[in-house]
Design brief:
With 144 residues, this protein is an all-beta fold. The chain is built from 1 helix and 11 strands. It folds into 2 domains: 50 residues, no CATH class; 84 residues, SH3 type barrels (Roll), CATH 2.30.30. The longest helix is centred in the C-terminal third of the chain and has 4 residues. The chain is globular and about 50 Å long.
């Protein structure tokens, strides 16, 4: 899996993609950056300061929808919403305890089930990215 991240630029509010790092300015201040296009040339490297809350990691999988813009499917990042064939909506998150990207649907259609989480690879080939928590907060219902 490639280590790739995305984050929203502080200056433009647009998504940028690449390597992520943090720079400690002093004891209280940390700046967050995405470095675009780091290899194979180091000339022309563009480092962009990003809003820390928007940083998400590429999970190494693409969704099932093939388009002209995304011939291999859209890349899936933590914080994305995925809709399956039955219309259920899930959110992608990192489970630290299991060291795995997972889908959480406890806030959506399956509240009656005891199991609230499922592994992402099971659904990525069947689902479609429909947004993310930063651009589409209306897709996430409030916690009961």
């Amino acid at each position: 899996m490639r280590y790739k991240f995305r984050g929203k630029s502080i200056q433009t509010g647009k998504w940028v993609y690449g390597w992520y790092y943090q720079l400690r300015i002093n004891e209280k201040a940390i700046r967050h950056y995405i470095v675009e296009n780091p290899l194979p040339k180091l000339r022309g490297v563009s480092e962009i300061e990003v809003i820390p809350e928007t940083v998400g990691q590429y999970v190494g999988l693409n969704d099932s929808k093939r388009t002209k813009e995304y011939p291999e499917g859209q890349e899936i990042y933590s914080g994305d919403f995925i809709k399956d064939a039955q219309g259920s909506i899930y959110i992608v998150y990192w489970d630290k305890g299991e060291c795995a990207f997972k889908l959480d649907y406890k806030y959506y259609h399956h509240r009656d089930k005891d199991e609230c989480h499922t592994y992402l690879p099971m659904y990525s080939r069947k689902g479609e990215v429909i947004g993310n928590i930063h651009d589409n907060p209306e897709l996430k219902e409030d916690t009961p």
